[in-house]
Amino acid sequence: MRIQFMRKGTNLPLFCENIGYNWNQEDVKRPNGYYYYHWLQSERGKGIATVDNQTFELNPGDGFLIRPNVPHQYHSASPYETWITGFFVISGDIIDDLMEFVGIKDFLYLPELHPETFSFIQNSYNDFLKEDLSATLIQSTKIYQFIMLLKNENQGSFNSFDDQAIINPITDYISDNFDHAITNEDLSKYTGYSISHQNKIFREHYGLTPLKYLDDYRLRKSKSLMMIHPDWLIQQIGEAVGYTDISRFIHQFKLSNGITPHQFIKQR
Questions:
Q1: H runs (alpha helix) in the chain
Q2: Which of 100, 161, 221, 268 is most buried, with most CB under 10 Å away?
């Protein structure tokens, strides 16, 4: 459990009031809100938050940002389980303009945080241990970086990282293993990301889920095989591209191409 309280620098462009992580979260109820922007993220366990009469769950990896003076409360989802959180309380002369850029209204709920955002508090904690001029400048930069991370979370702008960490590994795995059974769980183990997160990023990039991409890839491969091996049985073609159910292969092929595999071969 680590927490750092800062001297309030109300004349600064950006400043931090307090920052902490691995915090054993107590129940909080603020009918009049808080006087600075308050970020809270769930690290372990689960919480329930109510902000401006809207209630949502905070699972590990989720977070939310609240504007000053917005009524809110939050507590552990279970009286028998400890809820561990991280938090970052910030303000400054220019923060309202920056938050307008982020797109926050009364609050901003961000599920399934990008690893860079989720690890920011712990990675940056030591930069907030001092309060001299040099440290203050570093802290202002760090706060700005964090606000830009929130902007990226809200706009889905982590594509450059996710291309390398999620999208490319999935497409590579499919191209190498399309002739075998592939599940979302297989892809999740390969990328190291949760199924929901990797599917979200993949859908944002391609407009379809990884398994739909797999189906499309198999069907493209099947057409190539039909042209190269027109004497092969339809069942051979289907099995060669990973379909163990021949009826499903025929159905998917017709759905995608408007004709059956037999009709496609006859047209060649």
A1: 95-102, 115-118, 120-124, 133-155, 159-162, 168-177, 184-191, 195-206, 210-228, 234-240, 246-257, 261-267
A2: 221
CA angle, residues 251, 254, 255, in degrees to nearest 5 = 80
Return the pLDDT at 11.
65
CA Rg, the chain, in Å?
25
Domain boundaries, the chain: 2-155, 160-267
The stretches in the chain having pLDDT less than 50 are none
Assigned CATH for 160-267? 1.10.10.60
* pLDDT tens figures, 36-61: 999 999 999 999 999 978 899 999 99
What pLDDT, on the 0 to 100 scale, is given for residue 166?
A: 86
Q: What is the pLDDT of residues 84-124, one digit of tens each?
A: 999 999 999 899 999 988 889 899 999 989 888 999 999 99
Q: Which architecture characterizes domain 2-155 according to CATH? A: Sandwich (2.60)
Nearest residue to 24 via CA among 37, 42, 6, 38: 42
| Structure tokens, 217 | 């890839």
Query: Token pair for residue 161?
Result: 């990282």
Residue among 137, 42, 34 nearest 87 (CA): 42
How far is it, in rounded angstroms, from Cα 109 to Cα 47?
A: 13
